[in-house]
Amino acid sequence: MMYGFEWDTATPLTYAWSILPIILIGLTVTLQAAAAGFAIALGLGLVFAMLRRSRIRTVSWTTAVVVEFLRDTPLLVQLFFLYYVLPDYGVTLPAFLTGAIALGLQYSAYTSEVYRGGIDAVPRGQWEAATALNLSRMQTYRDIVVPQIVPRILPAMGNYLVAMIKETPVLSVVTVLEMMALANMIGERTFEYLVPLTLVGVIFLILTLICSAGLHRLQKVLPKAGIPLR
Amino acid sequence: MTQAVKPPLIQFTNVAKRFGALTVLDDFNFEVAPGEKVTLIGPSGSGKSTVLRILMTLEPFQEGQLSLAGMSYHEPNGTGPFKASERHLRQIRSHVGMVFQSFNLFPHMTVLRNVVEAPARVLGLPRGEAECRAIDLLAMVGLADKKDHYPSQLSGGQQQRVAIARALAMRPRVLLFDEPTSALDPQLVGEVLSVIRGLAHEHDLTMLLVTHEMRFAREVSDRVCFFDKGRICEQGAPEAIFTAPEHPRTREFLASVLR
Amino acid sequence: MEWVSYLPSLARGALVTASITLAAIAVGAVLAFAAGIARVEGGRVLSTVALCYTEIFRGTSLLVQLFWFYYALPLVGVSFEPVETGILVLALHVGAYGSEIVRGALSSVSVQQHEAARALNFGRMQTLFRISLPQAIVEMMPAFGNLAIETLKLSSLVSLISIADLTFRAQSIRNLTLDSAGVYSLTLVGYFAMSLVLMALMRLIERALRRGPAFPRAAHS
Predict the structure, then answer these.
(1) How far apart are CA C197 and CA C92, in angstroms?
(2) Chains meeting B at 3+ CB pairs closer than 8 A?
(3) Confidence of residue B257 (pLDDT cuts 50, 70, 90)
(4) Mapping DSSP to helix (H, G, I), strand (E, B) and coil, where does residue B97 land?
(5) Per-residue model confidence as pLDDT tens digits over A110-141
(6) Which residue of C has its CA nearest to A180?
(7) Which residue of B55, B91, B104 to mutate against C (max C Cβ within 10 Å)?
(8) CA atoms within 13 A on the CB side of B178
(9) How far C190 CA lies from chain A's nearest CA (Å)?
(10) CATH class of C2-219
(11) Which ipTM did the prediction report?
């Protein structure tokens, strides 16, 4: 029994049906973790992208190294690092938050590249026109750059969100009770892993198929020339 | 007339070709005698390139009959868009060669390899023999010294000459030229035309040429066909077409291009 | 200088990580080409099989796959050694993502190239192996480079099925010494170094392919 739900191992089908509510509770944790991680990745990625464009050589270069380092080392080890090292320095966070931060850190390296590509793709003429109209740097970003890059970067960002959802099971190693952790616990207790793990796999598959379809739809709806401003 | 003596090498009978709702060729009839040099002219979208692409089996057609050297393009119980098996199509292709507007050389092969690859792989010629022939052909188009270059190192005119040598290496009976000079800078057109002119005068190869170079068409062809809206509107000896066109559409078109 | 004493153990783990990664990339590349070619050139049956394979392995989480092969499969009588399981699952992952790369690069070979091949009467397989693949393979290399790095990173997950790779060794040392900062910093640096080596390796292969000397234009641009 878990979360008040009994399992019925009579047949694989009844078994799957009886543990589905438990797995779905895990799914909410999975989605929350991905959402929190993605929010961090979106914010931090933008910061990295802007620092990367800094005119001060030391800043842009340091940022490049940090981003490269985050991108080229495993999420699992970054997670262990945060989980075990932070408390040594007096920072004790709940496991869920540590997990979300780890996801966000790893993916901020990816999102910063997306931002960078998007900003680089804004034609030089747009910047020059903004200068000619005497817009401030802030106004240029707010009214000219961002509306133009959002449609361009959304599909790539969406793909990273999907990728991140699929990586949340890694958080189970630091005791975050997401879908796969629950499936494993059920497996340990019933000595029957096939059904719970397959169920989790199927849910992930459905989730990614829905997300890809949504992204596909989004790409069609997005205005090509940028978000229209009135 | 040559057509009267020899049976036609190419025969389109009531051919119709559509892209969805758009009809490109409509109830199209057309014959070419062996050795004949025919130029197809006309406004863009009139279906002249489509004739070549159908002959090369790059495009299927929906209705009517097409035969080449007595061989029908459709097989009696053929399936798929081409209504023929891949084997049958390859047999047809062995008689036809094509020179494309954009050359379409293989960028990852040297000039020599571009010319050798098909005879060696498809005809099964020993590589040494294929290379000897390739070098002869490259000499003919004046590019023997470029044999170890890659296509990207050549000018457009040189690439198109290699493409002609590559097509000839397969010893086709019919050679199709699909606007061979349209993608070239004006100063490079001459070298390509002079190679085609040489071929036209010295070979008994059957040639079909789609071009906008009217003076050249007049010079090399036995017959000129003016296309309009998927049909041949007027055809005849180049002198007749260029000096005394009968159909008003032909006159209009020639007036616009010969200005 | 306590951390120096970790080095021999971590180095042994790094060796395991490197072997598993390279094995998975090698097997995965074969799968990627098979599935990618099947998607583009295979008949309806073959391309559907390839599509199902890619969708399943791209659509479910790698860690779930790993546990499925490690815990669930033996229950229905199919079992592998942990190392084999690790390599297999990683290779299936590389194959699924790699097949998309192969498919994309093959479909980016221009229509004109296919028409030229047809005009020269090349057969389908000749066109694939002589014309399309040699051109496409150069285009695939940057994406395959990223996939290789991705594989190295994901190989850390095999530590969770008790394979003594770099991450596993780091965990053991940490449990023994409780020197989390030292051990994990070293481990991260180790992965970073391996990534750099792998990247250099992939770039070397790419340059050899580009030079070989098929794409002179690409080489001087």
Answers:
(1) 23
(2) C
(3) confident
(4) strand
(5) 999 999 999 988 888 888 888 888 888 788 88
(6) C64
(7) B104
(8) 26
(9) 9
(10) mainly alpha
(11) 0.90
